[in-house]
Amino acid sequence: MKTEVTLGVDIGGTNTAFGFVDIDGKSYGSSSIPTKPQNSAADLFARLHPEVEKLFATIADTHVLKGIGVGAPNGNYYRGTVENPPNLNWGVVNVVEILKQYYNLPAAITNDANASAIGEMLFGAAKGMKDFIVITLGTGLGSGVVVNGELVYGSDGFAGEIGHTVYDPAGRQCGCGRRGCLETYSSATGIRRTVMELLASSNEESALRNVSYNDLDSKMIYSSAIAGDKLAKEAFEITGKILGLKLADAVAVTSPEAIILFGGLALAGNMIIDPAKKSLEENLFHVFRNKVKVLPSGLPEGNSAVLGAAALIWNEIKK
Amino acid sequence: MKTEVTLGVDIGGTNTAFGFVDIDGKSYGSSSIPTKPQNSAADLFARLHPEVEKLFATIADTHVLKGIGVGAPNGNYYRGTVENPPNLNWGVVNVVEILKQYYNLPAAITNDANASAIGEMLFGAAKGMKDFIVITLGTGLGSGVVVNGELVYGSDGFAGEIGHTVYDPAGRQCGCGRRGCLETYSSATGIRRTVMELLASSNEESALRNVSYNDLDSKMIYSSAIAGDKLAKEAFEITGKILGLKLADAVAVTSPEAIILFGGLALAGNMIIDPAKKSLEENLFHVFRNKVKVLPSGLPEGNSAVLGAAALIWNEIKK
To answer: What pLDDT, on a 0 to 100 scale, did the predictor assign at position B43?
Structure first.
């Protein structure tokens, strides 16, 4: 009997990754193509289809394709659409309809953070949990909220925007047009901004004094912190502290068993988890104290977004 | 055929109200007894049982009892318990077990705000909605969050504590031991504190300058505001503004179709709804703007808590 797999597709602003995944989360090949964000969605899938077919041909003797899951910025699960993604020139487009031109199979779409949450539930750190929150710490801060074993999509399909809860209404300018959103502090971009603030406010010596804002990235800040750079360490402390403070508010809404940190900045491990956990505990309403775990992603680095997208459709098929 | 009813019991710090309710939310008699908060839970139910029997006797010819729902402070749905309620000398006690001594019927318990949310869903302003939040504005601020048509209990049964999300970490002292919780601003107690602040900070003439803190209640502030008292009006403006600001954060988590305001302070109607709605819109992440209704409770004043408790068990029976 052939092994059943789903196709996971993760659409990013630069590259679109894809791969085949079985119901246990085992990967069978993965690849990627350039997204070409200035082109249409139809163009992307027209280029993607032959590449998917080519990759599937290598496993077709022993595998059967059961469905397609897509993670994309501003992906809307209810409507099957991507709606005005900030980094793609797509407007509003029905991706599930486009997929039907190529495959007569179940298909679903959601945003990347929601896909990650389902990935963690099926294959990762949230296995067996019914109530948890996944926080993706990348360029921005995304989140996927799971309640009673189901992803929270809300009335419009856009629930789970913890990155746009407000830490300081008079604070940092956010890409969304407001000020002080959590993601302007706790994200790969946020920690760069915090480093700049610390370079301005303190006299602490730091290797980061030789790096421009545009050259700075969160890996560099992590390496400096690991090498003992006090300013870099403080940047992680502040990033985790603000994250923990706002997560305490989110816990008061859904009372999760765990919060799982995912994405580039989360690779800093305890450097970000420890201050986030400490601040969370300090700021929690007493009934929630000493209950909420803060965990790193349980998905393999590098392929986690494809696993999340594949998990999305596995979760539908299993229903 | 006899009409099926459930018994709703609302346990307050002073009185315990109860009554019978059919599946359409129609009430068949209600009554109350003193809670005697210094006594045990067993004592309350021993006194309650004959009163319930007496009331049921008046409708027993034409009605049959199908279950019992209880709303109580710190009620835990998962465990059937009330756990260390702030205003009852009960410690941790299993209420569902106690009820089994009297009735061999399905029984369930939750806190009053969650019961109200189920009441609104079955009988009130949230009929037909799958994603909404009920905010109870009483002495404190309680909340019940519904996602995908189900109440969010979270991992421990205590989800929905929006009153204890933090507006200002350096702000007003809260009963929970922290500072600046939303309920210290937006509740019947919160608006009294705001009046005191305004009496201190402004020179505005106000009828409320003749009232002591202990004598002041939210009805009085409402009457003054209706009579044109500028300071009282401003107190409602501030109360609604802070409520809207923190509700914007909650909307970012669960993306509800509506937020329903319930309880004593909510009886002020547009005096509180208008500034809350305005502030909510101003503070929402753009994808949620012009989508979220802010509505008054659709449950009849006076009997709403009993209806909520009855709805809790109707919701279980219907599953």
So the answer is: 97
Closest CA to A70 of A52, A82, A83: A82
Task: Quote the CA–CA distance of A119 and A127 in Å, as a whole number.
Answer: 9
pLDDT of residue B87: 86
Give the pLDDT mean for B265-276: 95
User: B7 and chain A: CB distance < 8 Å anywhere?
Assistant: no
CA distance A204 to chain B (A): 28
The predicted model gives A272-293 an average pLDDT of 97
Q: Is B287 on the interface with A (CB under 8 A)?
A: yes
Q: Which of B158, B245, B248 is nearest residue A255 as measured by Cβ atoms?
A: B158
The count of domains in chain A is 2
From B291, which residue of chain A is nearest by alpha-carbon distance? A156
B184 to chain A nearest CA, in Å? 14
| CB proximity under 8 Å: A 189-248 to B | 245, 248
Q: Which residue of A has its CA nearest to B85?
A: A287
Q: Residue A181's closest chain B neighbor by CA?
A: B285
State the Cα–Cα distance between residues A134 and A116, nearest whole angstrom: 7
pLDDT attached to residue B179? 96
What's the DSSP call for residue B28? Answer: E
Length of chain B as a residue count: 319
Position A318 scores a pLDDT of 85
- CATH code for the domain of B178: 3.30.420.40
Clarify whether residues B134 and B270 are in a common domain: yes
DSSP B66-80: EEEEEE-TTEETTTT
- Residue A176 near chain B (CB below 8 Å): yes
Tell which of A92, A249, A260, A279 to mutate to test the B interface (max B CBs under 10 Å). Answer: A249
**A252 vs B166: CA distance, rounded Å:** 10
Chain B residues near residue A252 by CB distance under 8 angstroms:
159-162, 164-165
* Tens digits of residue pLDDT in B178-235: 999 999 999 999 999 999 999 999 999 999 999 999 999 999 999 999 999 999 999 9
- Would you state the structure tokens that stand for residue A159, as one six-digit string? 């629930």
Q: Which residues pair with B142 in a beta bridge?
A: B136
Considering the domain architecture, whether residues A154 and A292 belong to the same structural domain is answered as yes
Residue A159, chain B, CB below 8 Å: the answer is: yes
Q: Which two tokens stand for residue B77?
A: 């749905």
ipTM over 0.95: no
Based on the fold, state whether residues A245 and A100 are members of the same structural domain. no
Specify the pTM: 0.94
Whether residues B255 and B312 fall in one domain: no
Please tell me the distance in Å from A316's CA to the nearest CA on chain B.
Answer: 16
For residues A153 and A236, state if they share a domain: yes
Residues B290 and B173 in one domain: yes
Q: Calculate how close chain B gets to A254, using CA atoms only, in Å.
A: 5
For chain B, say whether A249 makes contact (Cβ under 8 Å).
Answer: yes
Q: What is the pLDDT of residues A199-257, one digit of tens each?
A: 999 999 999 999 999 999 999 999 999 999 999 999 999 999 999 999 999 999 999 99
Pseudo-torsion of CA B215, B218, B221, B225, nearest 10°? Answer: -170
Same domain, B287 and B141: yes
Do A81 and A177 reside in the same domain of the chain?
Answer: no
Please give the pLDDT value at position B158: 95
Residue A120 CB-density burial (10 A; 0-12 exposed, 13-18 middle, 19+ buried): buried
Range name among A91-100, A142-151, A301-310, B129-138 with the lowest pLDDT average: A301-310
- Test B245 with A164 for CB contact under 8 angstroms: no
> How many CA within 13 A on the CB side of residue B173?
2
Q: What is the mean pLDDT of residues B43-61?
A: 97
- Could you list the residue range(s) of the whole structural domain that residue A142 is in? 130-296
pLDDT at A141: 96
